Amino acid sequence: MFAVVRTGGKQYRVAAGDKIAVEKLAGEAGDTVTLGDVLLAGEGDTIADASKVTVSAEIIAQAKGEKVVVFKKRRRHNYRRKAGHRQQLTLLRITDVGTGGKKKAAPKKTEEKKAAPKKESAKKVSVKKSAPKKATGKKPAAKKAPAKKPTAKKAAATKKAPAKKAAPKKKPIAKKADKK
Questions:
Q1: Secondary structure in 3-state letters for the chain
Q2: Whole-prediction pTM value?
Q3: Contact of 17 with 56, CB cutoff 8 Å
Q4: What is the distance between the alpha carbons of residues 68 and 86, in angstroms, rounded to a whole number?
Q5: Distance CA 36, CA 32 (A)
Q6: What is the pLDDT, as a whole number, of residue 112?
Q7: What are the beta bridge partners of residue 79?
Q8: CA–CA separation, 130 vs 139, rounded Å?
Q9: Residue 173 — very low, low, confident or very high, per pLDDT cuts 50/70/90?
Q10: Are 41 and 97 in contact (CB under 8 A)?
Q11: Which among 39, 10, 40, 38 has a CA at the least distance from the CA of 23?
Q12: Are 105 and 51 in contact (CB under 8 A)?
């Protein structure tokens, strides 16, 4: 049986006995981890329900990936930067791909679903309280209408300003002709 799992932002197709290197996971060598985010599962050409499939893996080692050199340069500006990076990795051996462990999680989800309607009823109460606020919300809308009148006064004040600018202009002084 195979499965497609997502961990560390990447997807891996795994089967029992496979060894993969993923981004660092918590744990030490010899610990067992469960990869819970199963996207697809199947056997041969058939596809199984991914929600019922679990993937168990054993941590082989915590390691570092190959060094990646980051070099930045801008021509003719005396700008050079050199940096390196080694990604932290976890080496896993897939021990089991099969149905099983997800059934225990299902009852917890139903308990959460039962608790969720209680929260919704509390939301209904808050909705009833917010309904009178909507009625009071209409009154400030009426207050906004008088706010438009001062803008009309400002427009009238700007109309008076051009009348003040109408002052007599001085006549230019005539230049004397150059003698030759």
A1: CEEEEEECCEEEEEECCCEEEEECCCCCCCCEEEECCEEEEEECCEEECHHHEEEEEEEEEEEEEEEEEEEEEECCCCEEEEEEEEEEEEEEEEEEEEECCHHHHHHHHHHHHHHHHHHHHHHHHHHHHHHHHHHHHHHHHHHHHHHHHHHHHHHHHHHHHHHHHCCCCCCCCCCCCCCC
A2: 0.51
A3: no
A4: 6
A5: 13
A6: 45
A7: 74
A8: 15
A9: confident
A10: yes
A11: 10
A12: no
Q: What is the pLDDT of residues 106-131, one digit of tens each?
A: 344 444 444 445 444 444 444 444 44
* Residue 177, both tokens: 């002709």
Supply 64's token pair: 């570092």
Match 């099969």 to its residue by tokens: 98
Please give the Cα distance from 104 to 36 (Å, whole number): 13
pLDDT, tens digit (0-9, with 9 covering 90-100), for 27-78: 999 999 999 899 999 988 899 889 889 999 999 999 999 999 999 999 999 9
Integer Cα distance of 76 and 139 in angstroms: 66
The residue ranking higher by pLDDT, 175 or 30, is 30
Calpha distance 148→135 (Å, rounded):
22
Let me know: does 28 contact 4? Beta carbons within 8 Å: no
Mean pLDDT rounded to a whole number for the chain: 76
**Beta-carbon count within 10 A of 28 CB:** 8
- Nearest-5° angle of CA 38, CA 40, CA 44? 130
